[in-house]
Amino acid sequence: MAKKYFDKRNTEEAVFKCLMVLSIFIVAVSLISILATVLVKGIGALNIAMLTKTPEGGYYLGKTGGILNAILGSVILGVGATLMSLVISLPVVCYLNLYLKKNSRFALLVRFSLDVLWGVPSIVYGAFGFAAMLFLGLKASLLSGTVTVALLITPIMARSMDEIIRIIPFELKEAAYALGSTRLETAFKIIFKQAQPAILAATLVAFGRGIGDAACVLFTAGFTDSLPYSLFKPVATLPLAIFFQLGTPFPEVQKRGYAAALILTLLILTVSLSARFLSKRFTEHLLK
Amino acid sequence: MNYSKLDSRKIKDIFAKRAMFFLCLCILSLTLFIAVGLWHKSAAIFSLVSLKSVIFSTAWRPFSGQFGLGGFIIGTFWVTAIAMLISIPLSVLTAIYLSEYAGRRLRNISEPIIDLLAGISPVVYGVWGVIAIVPLVRNWLMPFFSRRLPFFPFASDNFTGFSVLSAGIVLAVMTFPIIISISKEALKTVPLEIREASLALGATKWQTIKYAVLKKAWPGIIAAVILGLSRAFGETMAVLMVAGCAIGVIPKSIFDAGYPLPALIANTYGEMMSVPLYDAAILLAAFMLLTVTTLFNVIGWGVLLHIHAKES
Amino acid sequence: MKPHISTKNLSVWYGEHHVLNNISIDIPDKKITVIIGPSGCGKTTLLKSFNRLIELQDGVKISGKVLLDGEDIYDPSCDITHLRKKMGLLFQKPQVLPMSIYENVAYGLRIHGTKDKEELDYSVEHYLKEASLWNEVKDRLNTSAWKLSIGQQQRLCLARGMAIEPEVILGDEPTAALDPISAERIEQRFLGLKNKYSIVLVTHILRQARRLADYVIFLYFGNLIEHGPAEAVFNHPKDPRTQAYIDGRFFEEHTS
């Protein structure tokens, strides 16, 4: 048997392996450190009042009250934007996969622009949204915030759904057509039904991205102490609650920021894990 | 009897087709629409100053009509460069380990973790930056480096910890998930036969990776890096919270404060609408961000698309 | 003999690849027609050109005519969903729809306009019996169709295909993925159904072709070599290539 000796190539391998393990370690430590920071700071700040009250005496100065305004605002804005984006994404994905041929140039172009839109920074969406609002004479409001966030998450949603629909076996489509279904019926009664868990997963991921983003709602949704009550009034959101309230010198106010960070992270954690669970179920189902 | 009847099902199908096509056109034109909108709004500034002076001048005195974005561009450059210097080796090495060495269990755990890292809100990254990274820089890195290596790029008199280095570290962590996951995809597409062929010739695992696998996967990894770079370039909130953001400071050291473009937009847009042409200057900054990130994205996705097309 | 489907000079290309070359053929009414030939010779393409499913392939070009009851189905004014309703199709691997057993059969009826619950109940029961599946599933009509065995799934697909009251049943190697017993049951169903429907099957199992066929079509690399009543083709093939294929020898064609 060849003896394993310590030559140059083994040393090189060992060095790189060390570096790789070190990299993984650093990546893992960063994540743990982020979660630990949010958890430690957040748990200390969390109590019942935090979840059930709005800030008292102004979110920037008031030292009591909670962040219910931001929690509710974020959820409403996130759900609204997600629904709006769903209404755009499903038809687009349907058109790309059922109405166009597999190697259609137009489909390629649409997919490519979705990819590019995916990469447009959220601050650009925010600035564009605000410029458009000024043009239309609108003020920062729940409605403008929702529309802007919907623009931000539509590429994410549409593209992830598209990737899923593309791996559904061609024969299922054929089977539906062979029964005399129109393309629309095939899409909504067969294909989307088959891909349901994965579509839900894509929706959840988009929702998570939508409620987490601050740069997009900074100008378009504004901020307020009161609970959301009108489409045309400003609305508080969790990311901005964190950003604004950590910016104050008062520890009591900062606490509200930490609590908001914890709640936002927990929300996103839940959403991201359920999305994972759902898409796993989908692939298992599909590979059967 | 076979011949078409315009029944309700067919009408629905045709109507849906038109509506869907229209939506696709909307998607196609959205980038253009944003670009034209921002350009149109920001073009007003060129009545006062030239594009060249906006980009290269570092004088930012809006009240006296001086709109030099140069300082902010330099800030963006510092922050992005530091982020990439940290992120590229760490992410690529992690991706290689996960796809080539890691066992099934580590791979299964790593995926949701990377997902999670990608999902965390930028503001939460900012919070982490303020609480963990800024003190790290202030209390450990800054005293250590600026005392022992008092020259470029370490010498600095900014002792707050809010610096381009802190922003770069936070941004690096934010780009981990995108670079890792796309690089992993690229490595996954390398056929097993290539590895087997190399191993069969007596190459070590690392040699196989270095000479065979990476040779095949590098365009995908480059694309991953470009997309990560684009992400870092446009990231706003986290940077705003840790970079220091002082007007008029042009960073000359990794420990100096910086004021990147996205932070400028977030901080001041909508605030000083009474200053003439202020909003035009800010929207010009947004337009520049859009142009650069779109360029990166077109290159990055173009490379990935090309790889994909070659395979099938 | 009255033809049900006939093709006139049908040629099909996938991109540059010429798959079917100038096929003219008549499919008899209320008989089992079996298409045989070595794999990759265009059997499935011919079958799918009957209900225009080949149009879904990329870069497909079609010339010539396919007539169903004397009407050209490639005529632009032909209603494609209506045409497909007239043809039930069975695939190699059963493709159950992502819904319950009941809904699988009712789906076709629903999309073609049946709303009445009683009528649906009746049809579902009737066609599941026709496909000899009723007794096995009558207690669990509302469970997911995924839970059936693969043989049961194929019979469910048969019931689903018949429920839209087609005139023709097309089968693309419908027993290829099944175990022998399930295959046997499907074959029995075809024999029982042939006085109601025209059945066209693609198969690569010669014994199955002999068992089922009334009429045989032999394709060889996109060309129609021989067709005629099963008796004649199997026992007295005119072309040496047919003889070679049914003897189980591959015919080597020396092209110069």
Structure overview:
The complex is a heterotrimer of chains A (288), B (312) and C (256). Helix content of chain A is 76%, strand content 0%. Chain A is mainly α. In chain A, helix 3 packs across helix 9 and helix 5 packs across helix 6 (142-166). A two-stranded antiparallel sheet of chain B has the order 1-2. In chain C, helix 3 (101-111) packs across helix 4 (117-130), helix 3 runs parallel beside helix 6 and helix 4 crosses helix 6. Chain C is built from ten helices and ten strands. In chain C, the strands form two sheets. Chain C has a six-stranded mixed sheet, with helices on both faces. A four-stranded antiparallel sheet of chain C has the order 2-1-4-5, with helices on one face. In chain C, 36% of the residues lie in helices and 26% in strands. Chains A and B meet through helix 1, helix 3, helix 4, helix 5 and helix 6 of A and helix 1, helix 3, helix 4, helix 5 and helix 6 of B.
Question: Which features would summarize this protein structure in a list?
Answer:
heterotrimer, A: 288 residues, 2 domains, 12 helices, 76% helix, B: 312 residues, mainly alpha, MetI-like fold
Q: How many strands in all of chain C?
A: 10
* Biggest sheet descriptor of chain B: 2 strands, antiparallel
**Derived structural class of chain C:** alpha/beta
Strand content of chain B: under 5%
